[in-house]
Amino acid sequence: MDPPDFAETSRKDDEPETSVSLKSCFSQGLKQLHHNQELCNATLIAGGKRFPCNRALLASISPYFQAVFTSGFKESRDGEVFLEDMDPSILQNLLTFLYSGELTLHSEIVEDLFTAASRLQLLPALTLISRYLIERISKENCLRLYMLARDHNNATLLRGTLRYLGLHFESVLEHQDFPHLDLGALICIISSDQLAVTSEIEVFQAVQRWVKAAPAQRLEALGTLLQHIRFPLLTPEELAKVQKDIVMLGRHVEMEWEDLDGAGRLQLSGGLRQGMYQERIVCIKVPRLRDILSVNEDMDCYMECLNPDTGSRTKLPHLELVALPGCSVLEHRLYISGGKHPDGSYSCALHEYSSLADRWAQLPAMSTPRSVHMFLTCKQKLFALSGWNDTGPLASAESFDVVQQTWSPIANLPIVLRFSASASFKNKLYLIGGDADSDEVVYQGILIYDIPLDTWAQVPLEFSLHGASAVTMETGICIIGGFFSKKVTPPYPNRRFSQLLPCTPKCFFMHDAGVISKEITVPPLPLPLAFAGATCFQGRIYVMGGVCTSRTHDAIYHWEPGEAAWTQYPENLAGQGTILRRVLKCVTLKVARPSLRALIQDASVSRVAVGLKVSIRGRGEDDHPNPSGQAALVSVDAGTP
Predict the structure, then answer these.
(1) Is 255 buried (19+), middle (13-18) or exposed (0-12) by CB count in 10 A?
(2) Mean pLDDT by 10 residues, the chain (641 residues)
(3) Gap between the Cα atoms of 572 and 311, Å rounded
(4) What domains can you pick out in the chain, each with its CATH number?
(5) Where is the BTB domain positioned along the sequence (predicted)?
(6) Quick count: other Cβ atoms within 10 Å of Cβ 203?
(7) Edge to edge, what strands does the sheet with 313-315 contain?
(8) What is the pTM of this model?
């Protein structure tokens, strides 16, 4: 035997090996088997057409087919499954997806595909189809898609359609499909907090229209439907109109009354609906300790509420001033945690401002005093992360359950961070950049906290970032400005290292898992900014104040996805004497509309209708006049909404 040609062997060794993944090999093999109809041991039959396939593949993906082929019944023995009332072309489309991953979607067949995929429990296909439908919800199809989601108990599509229904309730109410909703679907819709109605009487009018479409069959359900009307939120004039309209339907009204103040009205009604709020931007001046000690102006009101639509500003009630606290918001509630007192001591306090009550309340304190910490909200929980106190830098973190009103420790951060861009998205918390530990090194990465798992993960960044701002959008997180460098930053003993980094106008978009988007581009700011306040208001991102290199800045800019550049707002932060030598935080707070605000902030006690029931008695039967003197109303024990 000739010896091997070592030169040839070496040359072959130098050639790169072709990498074949198990996933790609499996995918190509399935395509080939499907094309050649090989190794088929089952047959699906639809519309008289036969589809040979592999039962192991079907059973591995579909719980439906797993049950069919392991049941011991005829289908399991013979391998033939009759799918009655299923279009052969729809089944072919789904089988092509199972074998090749290719699914054909267009408007003419997508709802039939959804129905078939739901019936066969093909979850991977159902995920793609649901996403396609949600992206194409309109006023014309939302009620039909909502019923489709209910019929097949599809949570993803149900959430998407309910969200759309809530936002467009007024126009959907007028659609020809609305009267055709079944009773259960209507109750689900009118019970939702997400309805974009400015008054509760709009919900009653939806009930009224549905009943009038078929009064002979639906009048019996009127009492049940009215239990979902939030009567304490109706003004006396609206209540009188509801009574009159019910009488016009041939029914007699019986109401329950209670003595309530504004807070009682709100509590008994179960809260306001989405459209009963207006958004406002709260600007929170977060001073450093030396600013507190040197400032001469009245700093009791260092938070103001801005309406960008009108430019009007109102001050929030007094709260004791602290340096560098945590600030976050949860719908109509603003939270301030920790900070540093003028005497140098650190605070562990938690304060809550309710825009409905227009007052501050002190809640249970954190277990650890902290300042310069990240403070985030996510699904009825608050998270105080890292920071600093008189013991030094903190790796600890804790969460506050807003419902239970209790603090609990969570997993420590793997590194101590300050001045990170922070945001919550999809049940995770993101800390982007910041300065790490006590060595004054800018962190070149992202910390991601998984809330259900109580674990931290680190994702590297290709650059260093410090003092940036972050805003959560519907599909990801927008990161804005900051001190930026593509070089690794060494420690600086003078503790002013951030001034040695260049300030940047750069902005970028990040998906979940810390992946920087290459598809979504955010235009650069008009000038370099760090430590700016940023929030999302009515689909726009607003950026306020901040530091431009070493100078403070008082302009306001906004940008909406799809726009080519940022637009400067006509006013600036210094319009009413604002002092800018401090970090600025911005949050978007929900504030009740003026008419409702007056109703729920009224401290006086009055007689309020809290429940109603209807009967078939004649219109003139007013046996027991109610305390208001209106003879058509009687006091009974009726259920409250």
Answers:
(1) buried
(2) 46 50 56 59 88 84 88 76 91 89 90 94 93 92 93 92 91 91 92 92 95 92 92 90 87 83 89 92 77 50 81 87 90 94 92 93 97 94 95 95 96 93 95 77 90 95 90 93 74 46 90 87 93 92 84 86 92 55 78 88 86 63 36 30 32
(3) 10
(4) 24-191 (3.30.710.10), 321-534+545-556+581-587 (2.120.10.80)
(5) 40-107
(6) 23
(7) 313-315, 303-306, 277-286, 583-592
(8) 0.76
